């Protein structure tokens, strides 16, 4: 007899709360996409805008488009736990990012320092918020709210399969945990930094390496930004470990997709910053962030495509 697939998906009625999460994700995606185009902040008299060309727009729209697509699917009631898993992970990661944004817009002038914002090397001696920052904060807030509602809706959403992914879950969780640790280590340092300058003494010909002040690392910022960095690192590691255990298989796909989208967006943003400015260069942690992001994308694809088969029966 031919092999019979066991991964039969059963989806019950989609509760209103789950569809509400879809609405929140759609709004968050639209607002985040709109936030990429106007001026983000005016720092030390310099207007900072994430998008100045087509390549910048493509990078800036990676996460909003993914969030919008998942939100539309959830709003329509398709594979609801995939959308709920994505929302829970994206919202968990958005909490720390929201605190960092609040610091950038209001508290970064307390201790002025060099920052690299959208490829611009600026000193936070004065900061004025603009439409891009406001829209970005609104988008992150909507994402956090979507995560809270998703956690409530998860237990009320009936969606199960035959357990096709179960034999692979331990290996998937181990790989995700290793990649999660690597992602936290890469995030701890800037993805784009100011390179050291080599100065030659004209009298002796000796070369001296002069370290230039670069952007602050994730855990070097004070106050709300430090708290946000700690929450972001902890949430990333926790989501990486928990996502492969979500049931059914497509729930795990949604959780892993949330981690992958965040990491790829962060890595591509660092690459964009380095490409836009001659003052900064792409760093090894930035390249490592891209590698772990692609690793999570691979795990997401593996979980999505995985199909267990029954052993064909003998006789009959």
TrEMBL record:
<feature type="transmembrane region" description="Helical">
    <location>
        <begin position="171"/>
        <end position="192"/>
    </location>
</feature>
<feature type="transmembrane region" description="Helical">
    <location>
        <begin position="224"/>
        <end position="243"/>
    </location>
</feature>
<feature type="transmembrane region" description="Helical">
    <location>
        <begin position="83"/>
        <end position="100"/>
    </location>
</feature>
<feature type="transmembrane region" description="Helical">
    <location>
        <begin position="57"/>
        <end position="76"/>
    </location>
</feature>
<keyword id="KW-1133">Transmembrane helix</keyword>
<feature type="transmembrane region" description="Helical">
    <location>
        <begin position="16"/>
        <end position="37"/>
    </location>
</feature>
<protein>
    <submittedName>
        <fullName>Uncharacterized protein</fullName>
    </submittedName>
</protein>
<feature type="transmembrane region" description="Helical">
    <location>
        <begin position="133"/>
        <end position="159"/>
    </location>
</feature>
<feature type="transmembrane region" description="Helical">
    <location>
        <begin position="250"/>
        <end position="270"/>
    </location>
</feature>
<feature type="transmembrane region" description="Helical">
    <location>
        <begin position="282"/>
        <end position="304"/>
    </location>
</feature>
<keyword id="KW-0812">Transmembrane</keyword>
<keyword id="KW-0472">Membrane</keyword>
């Amino acid at each position: 007899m031919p092999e019979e697939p066991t991964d039969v998906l059963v989806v019950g009625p989609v509760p209103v709360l789950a569809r509400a999460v879809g609405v929140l994700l759609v709004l968050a995606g639209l607002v985040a996409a709109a936030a990429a185009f106007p001026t983000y902040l005016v720092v030390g008299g310099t207007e900072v805008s994430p998008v100045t060309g087509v390549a910048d727009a493509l990078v800036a729209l990676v996460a909003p488009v993914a969030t919008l697509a998942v939100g539309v699917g959830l709003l329509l009631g398709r594979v609801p736990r995939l959308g709920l898993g994505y929302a829970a992970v994206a919202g968990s990661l958005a909490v720390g990012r929201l605190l960092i944004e609040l610091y950038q817009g209001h508290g970064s002038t307390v201790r002025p320092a060099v920052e690299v914002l959208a490829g611009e090397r600026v000193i936070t001696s004065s900061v004025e918020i603009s439409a891009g920052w406001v829209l970005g904060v609104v988008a992150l807030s909507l994402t956090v709210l979507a995560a809270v509602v998703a956690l409530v809706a998860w237990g009320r959403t009936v969606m199960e399969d035959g357990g096709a992914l179960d034999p692979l879950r331990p290996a998937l969780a181990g790989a995700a945990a290793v990649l999660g640790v690597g992602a936290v280590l890469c995030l701890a340092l800037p993805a784009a930094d100011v390179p050291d300058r080599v100065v030659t003494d004209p009298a002796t010909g000796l070369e001296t390496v002069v370290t230039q002040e670069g952007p602050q690392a994730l855990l070097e910022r004070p106050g709300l930004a430090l708290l946000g960095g700690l929450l972001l690192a902890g949430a990333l590691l926790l989501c990486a470990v928990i996502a492969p255990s979500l049931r059914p298989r497509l729930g795990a796909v949604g959780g892993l997709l949330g981690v992958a989208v965040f990491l790829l967006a962060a890595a591509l943003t660092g690459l964009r910053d380095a490409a836009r400015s001659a003052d900064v260069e792409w760093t090894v942690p930035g390249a490592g962030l891209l590698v772990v992001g692609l690793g999570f994308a691979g795990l997401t694809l593996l979980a999505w495509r995985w199909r267990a088969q029954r052993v064909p029966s003998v006789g009959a």
